[in-house]
Write a sequence for this structure.
């Protein structure tokens, strides 16, 4: 591809040439001819890539070779090999540091950002979970990502998207790791009974339809066990803490987006039943005794079922069934 002037697009093309032969030397003269620029201009573009975190070796005689990709959630790296049509493809924003990816995604959604818009950050200063709890978001060690969706569903069906999101996150972990992953209603992903990921879904509705939904994912990837704050250390974990080895955040986020789009398409074409059936296979809550805390009250009993709207059906100690829309679950 011929490019007439140095630009961000030029840098993308240059990087593609380097990626075609990782570890292989490519001469500056060849790159200059392909990009229609001087060798000095090529050197400047290589310098810009190095500043972004790419490890590129330079030699006055041999040229350049790509030695290592950065473990950064750069949009170009997420999209490189991403097998989706919409999610992460329509529009995407990357931040080294941000208050909250959900907050930024909601702002973009109100401005008309299209479905599939992705917001990712290396660090969150105000990462949030359900009920405005904070989400530990240390730099370069987790996945902090939010998607904008515009499903054609009534507001009462919105809770289904949280369950769909948790299925996508669990499937990505199961596909790429050997971890024993389970889903805890309504929005937690567990490994060995410890929380490794959470989903935060926020919606804006009209009279009878959803205007937009923002689905946030916080996933602990390379956080050492002793780095978690003391107040959550007994209940939080990461891939690194469980396996002893670091894992590529880009690869994991890419797979999450692919699973998400696959289940989202199933939901739009076949309805929610296939998604819910898969969710039930991935949970370990059936028949377990729990306490559900809600605003102003709590219920204790045995998990009897989850209905097709994603509501928890609890059988209390009197044998009565209680349908619960939302709450915090504690295993007893």
């Amino acid at each position: 591809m011929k490019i007439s002037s140095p630009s961000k697009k030029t840098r993308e093309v240059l990087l593609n040439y380097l990626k075609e032969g990782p570890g292989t030397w490519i001469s500056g003269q060849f790159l200059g001819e392909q990009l229609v620029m001087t060798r000095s201009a090529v050197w400047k573009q290589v310098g810009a890539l190095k500043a972004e975190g790419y490890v590129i070796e330079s030699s006055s005689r041999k040229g350049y070779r790509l030695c290592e990709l950065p473990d950064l959630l750069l949009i170009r790296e997420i999209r490189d090999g991403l097998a989706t049509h919409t999610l992460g493809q329509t529009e995407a924003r990357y931040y080294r540091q941000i208050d909250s990816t959900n907050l930024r995604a909601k702002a973009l959604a109100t401005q008309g950002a299209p479905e599939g818009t992705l917001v990712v950050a290396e660090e969150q200063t105000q990462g949030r979970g359900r009920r405005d709890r904070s989400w530990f978001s240390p730099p370069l060690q987790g996945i902090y990502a939010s998607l904008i969706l515009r499903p054609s569903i009534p507001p009462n069906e919105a809770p289904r998207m949280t369950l769909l999101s948790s299925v996508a996150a669990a499937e990505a972990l199961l596909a790429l790791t050997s971890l024993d992953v389970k889903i805890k209603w309504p929005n937690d992903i567990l490994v060995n009974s410890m929380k490794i990921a959470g989903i935060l879904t926020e919606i804006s509705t009209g009279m009878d339809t959803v205007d937009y939904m923002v689905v946030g994912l916080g996933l602990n990837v390379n956080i050492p066990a002793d780095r978690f704050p003391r107040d959550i250390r007994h209940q939080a974990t990461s891939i690194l803490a469980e396996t002893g080895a670091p894992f590529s955040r880009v690869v994991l986020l890419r797979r999450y987006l692919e699973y998400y789009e696959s289940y989202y398409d199933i939901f739009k074409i076949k309805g929610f039943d296939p998604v819910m059936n898969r969710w039930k296979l991935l949970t370990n809550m059936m028949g377990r005794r729990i306490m559900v805390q809600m605003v102003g009250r709590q219920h204790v009993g045995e998990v009897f079922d989850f209905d097709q709207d994603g509501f928890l059906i609890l059988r209390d100690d009197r044998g009565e069934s209680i349908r619960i829309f939302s709450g915090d679950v504690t295993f007893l």
The chain is about 30% helix and 25% strand.
